[in-house]
């Protein structure tokens, strides 16, 4: 048997690449290296802007040429970095040598020793990870997440008055509306959205053990904490003044915890929509030419939501592991974070794939309102709650002498099928006011939805 040509090991880079490929712009090895080059070049420019060690600020065209190295970073640069790293056996050192090579080509070799000046690898890495994760969240994950919320809000508003039977514990229960139930999920996701949007992306830039030791020895008259803060903030990050060799990764644990929380709410949505499809509440719109089952031609399987479930579970497993691992580093530094952070893109990839499936799935379902009404009409016993509550109000107001209304309705309805006629006869014989009787007699399972319709308006409030 001949060997296969090189193949992607992860389905994210194979079968599902079209859905998650945008993440590669940020959370791939190449995306990380481009960010490292960006940080190294901006640090070099920042030093010359301050006139460190007798340098003068670079001319605008020189700065533009340096920044073009990042803007034009492509396959040739990826290959060159790989070639250099094959010798250095150190990824960040390879980036330093790569930048030095670019300085030579631009006629700026006199600045070579300012490359990576007073930096430990983590000064470059932590800033690069913060930049790539921030951009991946802002440019890829959040747009897809917001699109799912927007779709849910649209469906909630469309179906706000679509009365349906609730199923608490899987059993017939007080009716609601499909719109209100979808609004519940949208509201939960909106709350997490605000938390993710408020994420602080922290960065440190303080040397081998976070003490500025080399900095102070090289230039004792410089206010290094201020230089560090201003540099980190110039990258659009939040400065962390107290660290070991590494930035402590607490912001990452917080962010991944929130993404994982969002995943679990989405998982709840996927299982509920799957169940509504199983009940027939939602009809699936078959895609032209698609096959639901290899042997049963009639089937339209809810694969979008099943795929989403699996990928949300995988994403949360990875992100939860990262959140737990990254907050611990032995003494001033160990390398557990180096290996684990390389899987950030995998964690986000499975979440993005799930979001894509949920969004597509929500666009391929149609509510069967007639079936919802049919289901409600077969479960008049759910009005038992309404009847016993009205009786209690009547007793409290002195308009009834009935004892233990709950037990009375329990005897009538628990574990039994009770139809409209039986309930009407029961209500007609109750010791309550005529006004209360008329309200109850006018009630049907389809109209016993409280203010579910109005509650949809709470979205975005």
Give an account of the 3D structure:
There is one protein chain. This protein has 461 residues and is mainly α. It has three domains: 11-119, Fumarase/aspartase (N-terminal domain) (Fumarase C, Chain B, domain 1), CATH 1.10.275; 122-286 and 300-369, Fumarase/aspartase (Central domain) (Fumarase C, Chain A, domain 2, Up-down Bundle), CATH 1.20.200; 380-444, Ribonucleotide Reductase Protein R1, domain 1 (Orthogonal Bundle). The protein has 20 helices and six strands. It has helices spanning 17-20, 24-27, 29-49, 60-71, 75-88, 91-105, 121-158, 178-197, 213-218, 224-234, 250-279, 303-326, 336-340, 344-362, 369-377, 384-396, 405-413, 420-428, 434-441, 452-455; strands spanning 163-168, 171-177, 202-203, 238-239, 282-284, 365-367. The strands form three sheets. The chain has a two-stranded antiparallel sheet. Strand 1 and strand 2 (171-177) form a beta hairpin. Helix 11 packs antiparallel against helix 12 and helix 16 (384-396) packs antiparallel against helix 17. The longest helix has 38 residues, at 121-158. It is elongated, with a radius of gyration of 31 Å.
